[in-house]
Amino acid sequence: MFLGLILLTSLQVLAQKDSKPIFVSATTKHISLLNQADYAISKKSNSKTLPDLVALNWKPLDTSLKALYEFPDAVLQYWIRFSIQNDYPNDTTLLLKVADKMQQTLLYERRGQQLRLLGQSGFGSRISDLSIGGDYWRINLPLKQGQRQEFYLLNSKYIYNIKPQHPAIETFDSAYREKIDEQVASPAIFRNIKLWVAGFYFAVFIYCCLKYFFQRKDIAYLYYALASISLFLRYSLQVDAIVLETSWLSGLNNDFIFLLSFVPQNFFYILFLAKFLEVKNNKLLHALSNFCLVQWVLMIAVMIVHYAWPEFSSITKFIWIYSSLPFLIFTLLLSYHTRPKPNRGYLQFAFIGLLTISIALLFTMAPKWFNIYRLPDWYTAITKYVDLVTIAFVIDTILFLTALAYRDRQSEIERIDLKIKNAENEHKILRLQMNPHFIFNCLNSINLYIEKNDSTLASSYLSKFSQLMRLSLVHSRKEKIVLAEEIAVLKLYLEMETMRFKGKLNYVFDIEENVDIDFIEIPPMLIQPHLENAIWHGLMHKSEGGRIIIKISQNLMAQTLHITIADNGIGRAKAAELNSKAAEKEKSYGTLITNERIAIFNQKFNADTKLQIEDLYDENNEPAGTLVSINIHLV
């Protein structure tokens, strides 16, 4: 029995030697292996010895193989066998062109009863191991002069739904002309589209990182940055723009990392969608987003099983092919969730982006989900030459970045509006605080006349006070009043204080001619607290009284109004010694309110109003009063 098997094997080997070879000569330019070679399906990834190959079921490489759109689920490799008779007058090297990068192709030459590896190409090959540097579609085919050589081509599938290959033999000059024709037929921008996309996503990664770390601590930006760097890896690895292969880990190559990049790409993109669109407020969407996240983490285990145990290929194929179905359902539900709504204008960009991805996924994946293989020529042409999913993701990224910017702008406007409203409320409160403070001081003066039984002065004072009250009530409802109205209030106030000081108070208004007091607007009750401080804490301690000069000027070039209040009182240092703590507290309270009003006024009207107080000294360096300067930027 054992001898019979050896005899049968020997006869099969002899039969292989008698197979019709392919003749190549000086006139050879391009020869297809179709109908000139045999193929055999292998279910064992380690079938690389000649006895193992002899035992396979070999069939002619003809249209019967072409009719098989894909191999059975458990098949991850198949062999092509052919022989060549070199009629060149010397040794030469031709090229073996394969049809699809998504399969790894290894070329072996039979040497006696051994197989010798000549070269490799395609998906899964390390860049340093390619037969021709940078070429995934061609392998050097060395031929000996006048000899017949037998070759075995091992094709390993790395993803599902890969069409069978029909390799061809070509010369270097025909391959060169083919490359030139490809470049002429395809513009550079389309040839390098994935390189452009990789650069685009790297720019998006930088932008999102800058937004997150330096401007807006929004976790959505961080999620999108991580998804973008994964997309950058995916597309740059496809065009070998970067090389992530190591000598210490032979199994690590660009193609392996390319497959792994799908996991973080989808994982972080789903996290971004969940955060940006606030799906946690919707129980169904929240549950579906969590399911999608767990699913993509488990996809790593699916990949490992797919390559380590091919016999489970039917299971892993189902999971792999339908892996994008939950994501499609998620994007469709999100599209409905983000349909344009009032006061959420940024959602219209998210809606269009999600709808674009949903349509692209449905268009490209539906035939695989429903096992539809007879497709129109126009559909095949579109899916072959146009990466619709890539285009959809780029459009989606642009739209979502626009949505992020739109949302941030809306949030900023809302924040500014809220800040302005808060400033307005604070301004109103401070005006209400100012009026009681002013009224309190006026009533004290009236009370002083009443105590002295001076009814005439009390009546006159009360009359002026009623006018002040009326003006004060009118002005309290306004954020600005014209300068003429403010001057009228100040004159009334100073007249009342002059009456109280029995003529010992002198005041002068020095208003330059170029100041249009009937046009310029300033905050009400801005000057009065400083006049009050000058009188009560500067002049009241001088027996001979004193003088106040109010000077108003305007800088037309700088668009500023300059107001100074100068008194010849005892100065702030001396007043601090004489005044009680209660009086000093009262004084600082009025000044504090004025400073806060100026700060709010600047914030609301984007103005640059400044207040400065300095002490005046005479030639003997003795205190000679106080100077208050108010510089108002006219807006």
From TrEMBL:
SUPFAM superfamilies: ATPase domain of HSP90 chaperone/DNA topoisomerase II/histidine kinase
Xref: Gene3D superfamilies: Histidine kinase-like ATPase, C-terminal domain
GO MF annotation list: kinase activity
InterPro entries: 7TMR_DISM_rcpt_extracell_dom1 (IPR011623), Bact_2-comp_sensor_kinase (IPR050640), HATPase_C_sf (IPR036890), Sig_transdc_His_kin_internal (IPR010559)
Transmembrane segments: 195-214, 221-237, 257-277, 284-309, 315-334, 346-365, 385-406
Coiled-coil annotated residue ranges, if any: 406-433
Taxonomic lineage: Bacteria, Pseudomonadati, Bacteroidota, Sphingobacteriia, Sphingobacteriales
Keyword entries, A-Z: Coiled coil, Kinase, Membrane, Transferase, Transmembrane, Transmembrane helix
Record Pfam families: 7TMR-DISM_7TM (PF07695), His_kinase (PF06580)
Domain 7TM-DISM receptor extracellular: 197-407
UniProt domain Signal transduction histidine kinase internal region: residue ranges: 426-505
Record-given protein name: Histidine kinase
Protein species of origin: Pedobacter albus
